[in-house]
Specification:
The protein contains 7 helices and 11 strands. The strands form 3 sheets. A 5-stranded mixed beta sheet has the order 1-5-6-3-2, sandwiched between helices. Strands 4-7-8-9 form a 4-stranded antiparallel beta sheet.
Length: 211
């Protein structure tokens, strides 16, 4: 990899701080943990990792090419399917910073594989990697359907919207009350979110539905 002398560029990125499209990493000591960032960026808007930068923005640099190998392992061993990425080394103040660029995937969801070989998908919210929910998974599934998804407003849709508006909604309770499978409720919610009828936002450390 050719190292670029681009101190001004890296300093300008650091001034932005950590956000939905950027994360700082002092080092890569565990490829599995970095896989979560690959998953989150690929499943959201894309983004970059700056390896060799502390959380406070101070440049520590990377000590060897091992960091680049660990980043490659995060994507190619501990993510499925493998996300696209590019590693760009930069020389900054005599130290090397790795810029790992991860574009948004067209093949969502990208899963990270944990220590027990379980697969988890993540999304990027503000400066955090948050575990995706069954609603996210269903939205991605519907988004990948060849013939698309249609929606109609029956009594079930109307009842669901009414319960959400009145803060009475629970997937399990709604499924039981209407004698339908909870997975069918999740599919319906995903459609309503994708069509912009419902909002699905992260509030107080959990995802919340609202009109």
């Amino acid at each position: 990899m050719k190292v670029q002398d681009s101190a001004d560029y890296i300093h300008s990125l650091i001034e932005e701080g950590e956000h939905v499209n950027q994360d700082f990493k002092f080092e890569i000591s565990d490829a599995r943990k970095i896989a979560k960032s690959f998953s989150a960026f690929a499943n959201t808007e894309g983004g970059r990792l700056l390896i060799g930068v502390k959380d406070n923005g101070k440049i520590s640099g990377v000590s060897s090419e091992e960091e680049a190998y660990m980043a490659e392992a995060a994507a190619n061993v501990y993510c499925t399917p493998h996300p696209e990425f590019e590693i760009i080394p930069h020389k900054v103040d005599g130290k090397t910073v790795l810029e790992v660029v991860i574009p948004e995937s067209d093949d969502k969801p990208i899963f990270a594989i944990d220590e027990e070989n379980r697969k988890w998908a993540y999304v990027r919210i503000a400066d955090e990697n948050i575990q995706a929910t069954a609603i996210h998974l269903e939205m991605w599934k519907q988004g990948g359907m060849q013939y698309g998804v249609t929606i109609e407003f029956t009594d079930i849709e109307k009842d669901l919207l009414k319960d959400i508006e009145n803060n009475l909604f629970s997937i399990n309770k709604f499924a039981k009350a209407h004698n339908i499978d909870r997975r069918d409720v999740q599919r319906l919610i995903a459609k309503l979110v994708r069509f912009g009828v419902l909002d699905y936002t992260f509030v107080d450390r959990k995802f919340k539905l609202s009109l």
